[in-house]
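Hey, quick one: can you model this chain's 3D structure?
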Amino acid sequence: MTHRRSLHRILLATVAAAALVYSAFFTWLSIERHQALMTHTADLGQMDLAVWNTLHGRFVQEVKGESISTRLTDHVEPVFWPVSVIFGLWDDARALLTLQATVIGLSAMAVWAAVALGWRRQPRGLVYAAATWAALAYLLAPQTQAATVADFHASPLAVLPLALLVYLGRRRLTAPALVTALAALAVKEEIALMVGAAGLYLALASRWRPGFLIAAAAGAWFVVATLVIIPHYGAQCYGEARFPYLARYDAPDQGEVSEPPSRSLFRTMVGRVFERERLLYVGGLLVAFAGAPLLAPEVAVVASPLIAANVLSQYEAQYSGEFHYSTPFMSVLAIAAGVGAIRALSWARSRRAPVRLALLVPLVGLPLAYQVAEGFTPLGPEFALHRPPAQARSATLLHSFRYLIPEGAGLSVTPALHPHFSHRERIYTFPDVADAEYVLLDVAGTTDMHPVDFRHRFDELLRQGYGVVNADDGIVLLERGTASLGLPDRFFAFARASSPPAHPLEVTFGTTLRLLGYEWVDDPKWSYTSLRLYWQALAPPPANLMPYAILFDRLGRPVTDTRSALFVEPLWYPVQRWSPGEIVVTTTVAAPLGDAWGAYVGVVVDGDYDDVAARLAPDEQGVGAIPETNLVRLPPVERTSRLRRYQIVPLLLSPPAAGPADVVFSSWLKLEGARLSAPVIYPGCSLDLVTYWSKLGEPTSELALSVRLTDAAGETVTQTDGPIEGGLYPARHWATGETVPDVKSLAVPADLPPGPYSVVLVPYDRLSGAPLEADQAAVPLLLAPVTVATGGSSP
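Sure thing. Here's the predicted structure for all 795 residues.
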């Protein structure tokens, strides 16, 4: 007996220590993100405002657009009443982040208690071991951790009372269980579905009659919240008396299809269940617990309402396994896993050692391996994605502005500043201003606006009578009716380099500017990428000088051209104000470049390139100057896989095996491969052809390509001509052994008859128009047959 008590205490202490470490670590990480200005109006800002207003007698009051509103238009979260008390202890949004991480972490102890003390008929040592494993697997699960880096939400707070409800119901502790059920119901309307499921489980499986009462109360509360309270307030705000999130489960519009809506919705839901991403989501939940919940389906069913809600939603975030959508049911799923582990271990006790080992290895290995593959701790890849970068600015920048804004004054702020100033009744998210006396903007941070539109809105406020009262490092405070002081020099610190570039260069453009280096600012989470360039003015730049960059994708297609999509920093710190000797950064607007990309960098003066020829330092490697356009071509790169932690490495193109390959033209040009976008096309569509090239020697012509679609008689029905990569990368500048892609799109005539056609290729000299001769093939070169079909559209 003494040994059992000792084991009980040791294992419980282990879980308690792990829970405390979890809470401390994710509290630190979430606050680090907040202090690095990485939190947002959506979620933390709006939640913080609603909780703060609740403390001051305005239950869940918030601001929508330029109007005072209430969160009851979307959600019912009575839990914000007791939560608001935390601001009496710490009047800061960081208190909510701390509370969330702590509740999620300490729920591991409730998991342990529910398994260890709720299933006592099994051998004690085996039960304690299973309970400890379930609690640790719960803490390791990426779905548990995800909510802590997704700002703050109410629903993760349900993870603790839901686990306690299962524990208390199993122990038949009626009064505490009823209080816990009420606490869970107070969190958010959809939590009632799990409370109802838990009540039915306890009533039917554990024969605890109060479970029926809990299930009935949960069902009634869900109906009242979603069909009465939310529609009532929603009608006042949106003009429609409906629970707005039901739209996530609507069937897609079928046009004039005569199928009944109910049948269409049923088919849609069934189809969604078997989609790859949703199956992977459910699989991830099982892998996190080594599949053990399947061995306790009567417990796992308690989590099924929210799992089903996530799987059936058309909102991708719900079935991503990230954000906060899975966290509420993770403690219950962990309890089911613990019960399943008890059953598996009980079965394995009487088996031979290899059988027991075959069971223990996945139980221990899968949760740990899943953390390494998907986790948010330093063991997993998500940690690096969510941790603030080393060069991130700090919220300490805001101190000098905070004291200039009276507590009761109306304020408009950019999204990342909102959670730092949301403890006031009137706060708007820029560009909404309404009656705000003050406007605080971070021009170098998250704005949720195009930079040009953002600058225009700022100038509009100046014309409307707002004046600059303080500015520093990209943050500016405006006050209504105040004479503007202008933007001081310290405001432009955000545009000046504070550290050397990741990739140093020395490229001089004319006599005015020098490119000192560059770095890629990549967000692999959402596949958006920016190019940051480091410039040094060698002399006072003329008024008509403009540096620019053209970003291209894996196939050399231009994606962003800053001559139209401007750099961010020069909108505020124009090139003409750069002082000789200072180093200034310019950053492109983040764009979806795919998994591989590159860039050309140049300088123009009134659209003329001649006066700003690019000159490279003699020892530059991998960077090529192109005199024809005075551009510098940066080496193409690609993003590695998730398991390799998303490193950016040099791009190595591999031509496809399909299509003609190894065809040599004029003894210097080699076709490495070709690929068509589709073998079947339709009239009125477009057909993409990707070709891959290399050079064997020095070019003897100005290369261009003609891609043609020919009929059975060999007559051309449509064609497209032009140089490779739009002429940005002439063949004479290719490196020996380099593979260069090119994309040409053929517009298929809308009246083209159906039948067999061929795609042919003619490389030619752009100056003379003469085709290049193939060493061992006929020109035009047949690339692939295609079929023009009728009825349908191009895939």
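One thing worth noting: Residues 2-35 form the longest helix (34 residues).
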